[in-house]
Design brief:
Layout lengths: L16 H9 L12 H7 L15 E2 L18 E2 L12 H12 L14
Parallel strand pairs: 1-2
Amino acid sequence: YWDKLSLSAGISPATSPRRAEGLLLGRLPLPMEPSILSPLEQLIEPPLQYKLMTIRHIPPVMPGTGMPHPYVGDCIQCHLMVGGPAAGSQFKTPYGAVLENLSRVHKLGPPILPTTRQP
């Protein structure tokens, strides 16, 4: 299909930076590997800026649904995942069940500040 789109000069209109790098270096970069044009793209595009937030409530997240806010960093222990493994497959004490139900209403312990470091 792409060969039919090529011009008389031999330059394809579907040429991408990734394809050009493959022609120059003889290989395609890995999906997360920076490309030849990455430094130039970083100069042109400003970095994404997110609003810092303090977490005071842990919203429940149902399986298969999106997060309630844009992804900012590691969300380990920030959200209560509803569903998950089948009942009885994980051990949970009665005290743990009470804490789980309380965390649906309000986050237990001090609020997670935007500047908090992950342990």
